[in-house]
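In this supplementary section we document a worked example of the pipeline. Step one takes a protein sequence of length 613 as its only input; no multiple sequence alignment statistics are reported here. Step two produces a three-dimensional model, which step three serialises into structure tokens for compact storage. The input and output of this example are shown verbatim.
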Amino acid sequence: MPLNELEQKNRAFMAVYDPDLARSWARLQARPLDPEPARKGGLTVAINHQYVHSRYDPAKEAAKICEGHAKPVHLHLGLGLGHFLAADPIATGEQIVVFEPIAELFLTAAAHIDFSELLPAKNARIALDEEHLNLILREMGLRRPDQLKIIWSPFHQKHVAQMATWLPQFLAELFRDVSISRKTLAKLMPTFTRSTLHALPESFDKPPIDQLAGRFAGMAAVVVAPGPSLERNLIALRPYREHCLVFAVARTMRLLERYGIEPDFLVHNEAQDFYSAIHGCRNLGRTVFLLADQAHYKFYRASTTATFVFFNPTNLVWQWLEQGGLTQPRQFLETGGSVANEAFSAALLLGCRAVALLGQDLAVGKTFYADAEINRQFEHGKEDEAWVAGYYGGQVKTMANYYHFLKWYQNRLNRLRREGCPTVLVNATEGGAHLKGFRHHPLHHFLAAHATQPRQDVVDQCRRAAADHQPPAKETMAAALRGALAQIGVVRHLCAQYAPFQQQISNLLQQPTAEGLQQLNAYIQTLDQFSRATGEVVQERLPLLNGFIQKELQENIRETEPEAAATNPEEELRALLAGLMDDVTHLTTTYGHIAAGCDHLEPELRQLVLRFD
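The serialised model returned by step three reads:
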């Protein structure tokens, strides 16, 4: 196949296989290199007279480098001409991620390797930059660094500047963020699920936020967050109020009211009851509410204009509605977990051409928030604290969750730039942490330069956008909830069936008899059926259960370890019985969690059925 045809084929394949990589590829400005044949076959290539692969036998070199124990994910540092990827043996379920930071090498590979053959065969994905690599590794579901097998290209390890020192820091930050995200999600998931269910009678018929996409193209936007520096900056906003959009979070409303500022949009995602932050505020008469799917139900009742919903991919209630065909496929508003992140993403979605962050300190001083009485007892310990670059230079103190949000902004900006987004992004906080990549200007400078277009009638525009939304009928929702209640009955019956079987197999394993061992195969088959049934229940039949027991199920995950080889039949039998007992113990714990999940979910569904009926 001619080279240009192969490259065209690869581009078409990648547009479907990995659209993110396809977009990164389209932005590359480099030119491919000219490979040369190696003596033993295959191609090699040189950069500045340094060869990326062996000039003699690149396949043998690659096979040697790929030796070692397999892991769930193999991280290749360097694609080169694909020899390492081709040589790496992977088992079923294992995945490969390739990081190629040298654009010339990727383009050379794309001109000489058939990606449609190699990547699916190796269950592999390619990243060309750090942020994309971060996203891919997060999708792999990794929990610990020892789940990674690292395969270094000798050329990259030696000649790519600082790569060897970059990797440990990159992985440390990745797994720290993964740990924080997993623990936070597991801890808060019952609250999120319960809040989503409580709000469902008010939220199910609200239009999704993506119906506002591009509606305010060309406008300047100010995202108002409740950092300690907020109050000293708000006065600069008033002269430009009719020429910019204001996206505010709930904790800023009292201050905005004090300065006579009515926000265009109130963005809120808290499942806890923070309604007191806006109760009685007189500056919400023409504010459109943008609410997360799990936001507290009182916020869904508060708007006098319009309310739009944005979705979280981890929300199991709306996932269940989507799978059941009760809602359209959801478009997710990107977030790092902070409501200010979501307000920033909302401004971009709506088409704003310039966005300024205000009060986004992401650092702590004497207070955590602009109004000291809000969250006065913000809990944190020394272990949560860290130091980062400050807005005005030097170092400022931050915390683990703030640092996570800070990194999100930086990664988000990097991706926007790679995608060619022309939006002007400014940090006008004038305090706190430095946001790498953002312009740092005072708010009045930002507004004078960019708040030049008269503000439209926001409420009218939003009502027009919501006009063609067609929500499911109340009766349809009630029927779906009754169906979920019926499934709880099926799940409880399964738990009841497991209990006597567990007793029987436990007795056999603890006191094996010749007669009992003859029936062991039948017991193993039944145990396997009960094991598969738990996955079906939690993932397919009643995924809502996960919302109440995710933490417990995570803690019950077992790490498999290689078993020592038995030296005789007696040891082999003893090992088999011990392994089966471990399986039974683990499965018994799982069924206990499932039964407890039913106890939490059932009353919520019964109350909802009554409210919809």
